[in-house]
Amino acid sequence: MSDIQLSLLNDFQRGFPLTSTPFDAIAQRLGLDVEALLDTLRRLTREGVVSRVGAVFRPNRVGVSTLAAMAVPEGRLDEVARLVSARPEVNHNYEREHRFNLWFVAAAANPAQLEQALHDIEQQTGLAAMRLPMVQDYHIDLGFDLRRSVGLTDRHQQKAAPSRALELDALDYVLVEAIQEGLPLVARPYAEVAAFIGTSEADVLIRLGRLLDHGVIKRLGIVVRHHELGFRANAMVVWNIPDEQVDEFGRCVGASGLVNLCYQRPRRLPEWPYNLFCMIHGKDRDAVLEHLDHLRDQCGLTDFPCEVLFSKRRFKQTGARYLAAQPKAAAEAT
């Protein structure tokens, strides 16, 4: 990868310009022609290095989602993984080193649709799916510093959720539907989105700015795929923390600068006693384990029961689709 490509993918994962010609602004900073920049992004998207250019939404602010896990007999793992990945509600699906060996994230417009999708998966596979919805977000932002051996976000760039949630109107939801799979890679992407949903470019820019300011969109920029960029080891680390202390330790882990994600999820006793989760991505297994050791020492987690679930295979990784894409009809109804 060239130095310019590295700068493009590393430096523009957030703070994407809210201007009529955002790619011009990026091209100017990199010393590129805008068409060369767009061609590079299109090629990297085709190659799977870039997932999309667009928004990463705060969980459960647009639609609902949950982490789920299944204990799949080894001989059925490929079959069950295919069935799970085929569901449009599923955006991430991984094999991990554990008795619960298949872990996936599902998202839908509302709780009833999400539960129906999980029920259908259980009916299709004949296996139970353990639901582990997020209780508390301590740090969620899958940006990567591509110049390090462990792909971490800058903890100082995290924006807390505002105390008063933004009430989305019908056109906000239409906008989310239109961009949830990414912005079009054209010179004026916001104008193309505006034409598609039946509003003005200025209105799209205002609405995106408001969604960012209120934390509905956690970041706007280039969403990379870590495995293709060399971060081939990732571990989900889980702890059993006393309920009265989980916020304290969750805040410490989230602010540590040593993890990509940190959140509280419910226990599912007796099978699953863990309530604090974090993710660490690294270029190799040793780099992940080294950061985990630092994390244990930094936050005083050494004495709590813990398991480390390394990923073995990635079956699916896409952006979450919370809403069915029907923008024109919805726009006409507003």
TrEMBL record:
MF annotations from Gene Ontology: lyase activity
Domain of life: Bacteria
InterPro entries in the cross-refs: AsnC_trans_reg2 (IPR040523), HTH-Siroheme_Decarb (IPR050684), NirdL-like_HTH (IPR053953), Tscrpt_reg_HTH_AsnC-type_CS (IPR019885)
Keywords, alphabetical: Lyase
Pathway assigned to this chain's UniProt record: Porphyrin-containing compound metabolism
Gene3D superfamilies named in the record: 3.30.70.3460
Start and end residues of each Siroheme decarboxylase NirL-like HTH domain: 8-50, 175-217
Residues annotated as domain Siroheme decarboxylase AsnC-like ligand binding: 64-135, 229-316
Enzyme Commission code(s) on record: 4.1.1.111
Swiss-Prot/TrEMBL catalytic activity: siroheme + 2 H(+) = 12,18-didecarboxysiroheme + 2 CO2
Coiled coil ranges: none
Enzyme's top EC category: lyase
Record family assignment: Belongs to the Ahb/Nir family.
Protein name: siroheme decarboxylase
Organism, as annotated: Thiobacillus denitrificans (strain ATCC 25259 / T1)
Lineage: Bacteria, Pseudomonadati, Pseudomonadota, Betaproteobacteria, Nitrosomonadales
